[in-house]
Design a protein that fits this description.
Order of helices and strands of chain A: HEHEHEHHEHEHEH
Number of domains of chain A: 1
Distance between the termini of chain B: 50 Å
Helix content of chain B: 25-40%
Strand content of chain A: 15-25%
Structural class of chain A: alpha/beta
Radius of gyration of chain A: 16 Å
Oligomer: heterodimer
CATH topology of chain A: Rossmann fold
CATH architecture of chain A: 3-Layer(aba) Sandwich
Number of strands of chain A: 6
Strand content of chain B: 15-25%
Shape of chain A: globular
Helix content of chain A: 40-55%
CATH class of chain A: Alpha Beta
Number of helices of chain B: 8
Distance between the termini of chain A: 20 Å
Order of helices and strands of chain B: HEHEHEHHEEEHEHEH
């Protein structure tokens, strides 16, 4: 369990940004760091959560939502960014707004080596696929960063990702619950 | 071997589109739809393989009063096969997916695909929870089935067995910004970014 689930003031602020920016749809493969935001979204009658099987579906969904006149955001863990690579050509080519909110793994205090390769590659992969990468340095910066990214994305047709580091959401660690 | 003429089938499908919105998967389905005449309310994919069904879902959820028709191929839908679970869970009544199934990769040398090795797409859609799923092309189609693809409460999935045969390439616009802009202009009366209604 990560600590942020119990102290999620930044999550409430992020939810408020979604509301203020009229983002009514959240596509996601969940992550622990997103759980509070996703709960708030599910409880809100004006916001719909679309659960995906793989994150690239979310990129395509965002494009369809925009074509239909609706704003959406893709929320995922950094490992999911790797699943999105080719699909990111769709918003980039069409200059369709593509807003991503990513909780990081594989960096600060990581326990699980399997998370490290994609976590380390995440910012570079996004940049190589034309997305602007924003990295809030503290919990206080998350919501304003998302608001700025959202404003830019929906006004310029950019792809952008806000990457929330483990120094903010907490590093997951595993304690064995039975003998190996 | 199916004897369905994909061009004729898509032509009759497009003739009864009304104000329907159309998304095409890359390759021959894009050409098939384009051959019926370019339309501002067509959104063509020339890439992003595996994405057509989810683009269709996004439009369908945003525009619940308009019918959305995704026309794609067996390889394209299989690359995004998880989308069928996502769509069934969202259960949009206004979304139809039509798969032109030639059991292979027509664009790249006619290599045998997985539906040619027994994968049953309609059964996958059915098990995923689609409200209606149909298989055509192996027997005589029922009267009026094309019209019903537009009107049956969705999500509807239909797979049509078609021969593996080259179809003429129809060069529909492949400038994504243009296709995006005119689609929104025609649908929403507002253009691209920064011009939201």
């Amino acid at each position: 369990m990560t600590a942020e689930v119990d102290s999620p003031s930044w999550a409430t602020d992020v939810f408020r940004v979604l509301k203020n920016q009229e983002i009514r749809q959240v596509a996601t493969v969940p992550d622990g760091g997103l759980s509070r935001i996703l709960t708030l979204c599910e409880q809100d009658p004006e916001t719909s959560v679309v659960t995906l099987t793989t994150e690239e579906e979310g990129v395509a969904l965002l494009c369809g939502s925009w074509l239909g006149g609706r704003r959406a955001v893709l929320m995922m863990q950094s490992s999911g960014v790797g699943n999105c690579i080719n699909m990111l050509s769709l918003p980039l080519n069409c200059r369709i707004p593509c807003l991503m909110f990513v909780t990081m793994r594989g960096e600060w205090g990581e326990f699980n080596p399997w998370q490290v390769p994609m976590g380390q590659a995440t910012p570079a992969v996004l940049e190589r696929m034309g997305a602007h990468v924003h990295r809030p340095r503290s919990a206080d910066e998350i919501a304003p960063t998302l608001a700025a990214a959202s404003h830019q994305v929906f006004n310029t047709g950019a792809s952008a990702a806000v990457l929330v580091g483990q120094h903010i959401v907490g590093s997951k660690s595993f304690v064995s619950q039975e003998a190996p | 071997m199916s004897s369905v003429d994909r061009r004729e089938l898509i032509r009759s499908l497009m003739e009864c589109r009304g104000d329907g919105l159309v998304v095409t998967g890359l390759g021959s389905p894009t050409y098939d739809v384009g051959a019926c005449g370019d339309d501002d309310l067509n959104f063509y994919l020339w890439g992003a393989m595996g994405g057509s069904a989810m683009v269709g879902l996004g439009i369908a959820l945003a525009q619940p009063d308009r019918r959305v028709m995704v026309v794609t191929g067996d390889g394209e839908i299989l690359m995004g096969i998880g989308s069928l679970s996502v769509i069934a869970a969202q259960a949009p009544t206004n979304l139809t997916i039509v798969v032109l199934d030639n059991e292979g990769f027509g664009e790249t040398g006619e290599q045998t695909g997985l539906t040619g090795r027994g994968v049953d797409l309609a059964a996958i859609a059915d098990a995923s929870g689609f409200r209606a799923s149909f298989s055509y092309g192996e027997t005589q189609e029922p009267e009026g089935f094309v019209e019903r693809l537009w009107t049956t409460p969705g999500p509807v999935f239909a797979t049509v067995k078609v021969p593996m045969a080259p179809t003429p390439i129809t060069l529909v616009p492949r400038e994504g910004v243009y296709v995006h802009w005119r689609f929104r202009q025609a649908l929403l009366g507002t253009g691209t970014v920064g011009e939201e209604a």
